[in-house]
Amino acid sequence: MLMAFWQVQRLTREINELERQAMETRTxxxxxxxxxxxxxxxxxxxMGNIAGLSPExxxxxxxxxxxxxxxxxxxxxxxxxxxxxxxxxPFTGNALTQYQxxxxxxxxxxxxxxxxxxxxxxxxxNEVEKEIQxxxxxxxxxxxxxxxxxxxxxxxxxxxxxxDAPKFGLG
Length: 171
Description:
Blueprint: H1 2-41, H2 47-50, H3 58-86, H4 95-164
Helix pairs in contact: 1-4, 3-4
């Protein structure tokens, strides 16, 4: 009977630990989903979009915001220069009009580049989410198995207690 009691205690501790792990994993998954959602919903990642993300995701989001702004600006600048050098950008003769034309092209190229970078980051986040979901599924499977084992151990303990109980001549 003592062995069954210890088995119940051990399984209860293991179940509690697995439930804690499952809760932490669900929270982590939620943080990544929130970040991916913010990426998909905004044109540019800025501090306003980042504020409110979890401490686990915040450094990545900040680095991505800085990197995507810098990389897309560089790409847009290079594309505008290539257009000017290849003659694809018309020369207007008016400095203000020329500047507006170049800035318009720069903004369009930057937006396209930002969109591509965001898509890459969203795809990466989707892969991370899949890995976390697999981890959560594994934890939940082990939890289900431990709960079934706990129920069987409790039944065994009850049976042993009934069998070991004094009968006082009644049975």
